[in-house]
Amino acid sequence: MARIRIRLGEKTKTLSVGALLIYLGIGVLFLCIFWQFSYLMVHKTLDDEDLVAHGHDKFTRSAVREAARGDIVDRHGNVLASDMEAYRLALITDADYPNHVTDPKKTAEAVAEIIDMSSEDIQERIEEGIENERFQVELGKEGRDLSYNQKNALEDGSIPGIVLTPETKRFYPNGDFASHLVGYAEQEEGTDELHGQLGLERAYDDVLEGQDGTIDYTQDLWGYIVPNSDTVKPPEDGAEMKLTIDSNIQLYLEDSLDIMEEHFEPEELFAVVADAETGEILASGQRPSFNPRTREGFGSSWLNMLYQYSFEPGSTFKVFGLAAAIDAGVYDPNALYESGSYDVNGYTINDWEKEGWGEITYNEGMQYSSNALMMLLQDKVGEEAMLDYYRQFGFGETTGSEFPNEQTGTLSWESELQRKTTSFGQGSTVTPIQMIQGMTAILNGGKMKKPYVIESITDPGTGEVLHQGKETVVRQVISEEAADKTHEELNTMVGGSMERNPQYLLDDYEVAGKSGTAQVIDPENGGYMDGPYEFLTSFIGYAPEDDPEVIVYYGVKLASKNKSDTWDIGVMPGFNPLMERTLKYLTVGESGSAQGAEVIEVGDHTGENLTEIPFASDAAIQTVVIGDGEEVVDHYPKNDTLLPYESFFVKTEGEAAMPDLAGLSKREVILFGDFIGVEVTVEGEGYVKSQSIAPGTILSNEEAIEVTLSSNDPED
């Protein structure tokens, strides 16, 4: 091999060419390595990849700390919507996994005893998973939102192959309870996040949902957390929303809607209770409705009828034409006119009694709800002036409520015929919230109050009030004198000299208001439906009549059962018990003074003597006792609150004896059955009239109770 001589000073070294090349190669290699390390140290990238970020990602971990969705509570702090922990069930079908389903039939039968799904369907899911070599199968909605008790039952059953994963669900403790107002929230597909889908839950989703937090930390090669490497961003829980809704009044309203639904089986129902002085909405409900807890009835109606339902109101609208005529100085209650019909450019419009009542006074015409009188008054006021009055009362525009998509209604004013029919509530449309708002002007010296349903929104972390609802005067619509005179005239509409609408009279309170019977648009053929009793029947009333505390607006559309009653008695079966129970609850006396109901705090009284529980003997609380002893073994509610006229269920020592359930509502009867662990079947709507097991009968575990309800308020 060729050699090369290299002279180093006086010495000469001989190297082979191969060795020289090796030395040169090693030198070049080290030079390249040095250059590469230098480049990496300076630029910190390789093939356009950020090496620092790559290392950070490899050793840094991040976990989400979920924010709690804000509660929705009533005016007393009672929870209407809240987060709770639930569980999702899965069944492992992979035989290679230690804990897997070994016997599909036995597993299906065991699971079916605990969740609401047939064993056949469960077994089919399991076998399908095994056949398709899946690791696990889930059971759809029946296997989700399982309670803590269901979780325990599944785990205690030692069922092979089950896996229970905790998740957050939205809980609505009262079921079908102001459902369209409160709305509902649920986990969206593909995520574990709760989002509002309807009602306030949707309208204020960004406020209620809060902001999730995070915790970031660094771990070493062995998976240990590097000390002092964690960075925590705490979650910001959603704000708490307090409503003006009163749960007790809402309960009365829901019970009354059940009564009306049973009696009429209508296409639609609505009811709203408002504070006459402030405009606060105390209760609101409708049918069809849904139970946000079980989803029963879900999808039957998406409209929040209080704000989004516009309809022709009929004669209840005459209240505002009357007020305008009085304010304009053209209404004399003793003036005479000829009733029966009114000519509009050659077209005759009749009163509901076509022959009329002869020559009568204006006041008598109002009591008879004469269409001819309203058209006459509109001509006297002047059409443009009357249109301005209607607009001043808030019709044709939203109330500026807390809800998006609030409807404006319409004031049909293009033709002479439209203008005239509007005077008696046909042709133009309104919403229930507009009617409530307009009525507040008449009952508050002409000052119209803006209705509102949100009392406050509060940041739970800081206590900062993000929104404060308050009494607001929209404007002075009519003079104080005109409002007082309108109020006096309305006080004659129930039980006045013509003895009209006597069905709305109450024994203990003087009720005033105006009824309405409106024709309904035929959606298929156009025009109005012309079958017998195909109406929207309503009543807007207030009490006490001289110093109103409460306004109740009630409507029923297109009854399919007991149709003639919509004409004969109107909405009385629902309106009367709702109004009376509300007034009694608010302790409104004949003087019209409202004291307001006090919330009773209920702790845990287990082990105490029943006679030592002060509120148990309160006349405003219905205490239902199961047992013949004195010592309290259990009770409901516990560590919660009671409102006046609610029921307090107590188990005492000794044999469990059947109590007298007379007067309990349907909801209370169901609560009673849950409390004592006995199946209760209910027939009818309203309040308990009879029960299959006589009071005093000793109860056994096997017995079921059948109760019959009556639509008559037992307190009447």
Automatic annotation (TrEMBL):
Member of which family? Belongs to the transpeptidase family.
Q: Which GO terms describe its biological process?
A: cell wall organization
Tell me what organism the protein belongs to: Salinicoccus hispanicus
Kindly provide the name given to this protein in its UniProt entry. Answer: PASTA domain-containing protein
| Residues passing through the membrane, by range | 20-42
Q: Which UniProt keywords apply?
A: Membrane, Transmembrane, Transmembrane helix
The UniProt entry, under Gene3D superfamilies, shows: 2.20.70.70, 3.30.70.2110, DD-peptidase/beta-lactamase superfamily, Penicillin-binding protein 2a (Domain 2)
In terms of superkingdom, the source organism counts as Bacteria
Q: Localized where?
A: Membrane
Q: Which residues form the PASTA domain?
A: 651-711
Q: Which PROSITE patterns does the UniProt record give? A: PASTA
Principal localization reads membrane
**GO MF assignments:** penicillin binding
Tell me any Pfam family this protein matches: PASTA
